[in-house]
Design goal:
It contains four helices and 18 strands. By secondary structure, the chain is an alpha+beta fold. The protein has three domains: about 80 residues, no CATH class; about 100 residues, no CATH class; about 45 residues, no CATH class.
């Protein structure tokens, strides 16, 4: 089975949707109750239903249970080797999209390197012959986003804005009814859930091959206006047989 962590959706290995699984209690119990490693199901006192352990279910059994009962609930622990957790990469930065179109139009399409961010995904890759290139994951203090919060004094509406050039009410003909709750400030974005991640390298990838890394673990930093800096979600790199070496950005200097 496949669990898309950011969407909280569970699918069969063939991509058939099983259920949206988002109960925080199930996650907490799976981490803290030792019996959850071995029990096939337990009774949830919060929603008064039986929560099934995916480690003991086939894809078809989980699908049948979800179709038979709309209130069916599931949980998985690290012991559930039949469940692969996947996090979709962040939406590409505009510069990445433009350069990707340029590269695809002008060159042979590059192989895509994927990233494993959970133990189950890493184990699956290792068991299937892939090389794992490990990295520590996290966002450093070079990445800075900007935010301000304004409130409409007449309606109470809150406006969140990240562009100091055009604060709420800017350019309006009448009286500006927006007042700042928090004026513009810089902040580091939230980092990944796991502090460890790994690039999944195909065993037959030849040294010198240029690839596209769709979910970069390193902070590929792009300087932006208004003293902000954004983290690029992915970029091109060259596999030298041992490591991935990211290419320089041709307009903004070295990324990372």
């Amino acid at each position: 089975m496949i669990y898309i962590t950011d969407e909280q959706n569970l699918y069969t290995d063939q991509g058939v949707f099983i259920k949206h699984v988002s109960c925080p209690l199930a996650t907490r119990l799976a981490r803290t109750v030792s019996a959850a490693q071995t029990e096939r199901e337990f009774h949830c006192m919060h929603c008064q239903t039986r929560v099934k352990n995916l480690a003991y279910l086939t894809d078809q059994q989980a699908l049948d249970a979800a179709q038979a009962d709309a209130r069916a609930c599931f949980f998985a622990t690290p012991a559930a080797n039949n469940v692969v957790h996947i996090t979709r990469p962040q939406p590409m930065h505009g510069l990445v999209r433009s350069w990707q179109r340029h590269m695809e139009d002008s060159e042979i399409k590059n192989p895509v390197i994927q990233t494993a961010r959970t133990a189950s995904a890493m184990n699956w890759a290792a068991a299937n012959g892939f090389k794992l290139l490990f990295r520590r994951a996290g966002t450093d203090d070079r990445v800075q986003h900007q935010l301000a919060v304004y409130q409409n004094t007449q309606t109470g509406e809150l406006v969140f804005t990240d562009d100091a050039r055009f604060p709420p009410g800017h350019g309006s003909d009448g009286e500006n009814v927006f007042v700042p709750i928090f004026d513009y400030f810089l902040y580091p974005p939230q980092g990944p859930v796991s502090p460890v991640a790994a690039y999944v390298i195909p065993p037959d990838l030849a040294p010198g091959t240029q690839v596209f890394v769709e979910d970069a673990i390193e902070d590929l930093v792009c300087q932006m206006p208004q003293q902000t800096a954004e983290r690029m979600s992915g970029w091109w790199a060259v596999w030298d047989g041992e490591d991935l070496n990211f290419l320089r950005h041709q307009e903004g200097g070295l990324l990372g």
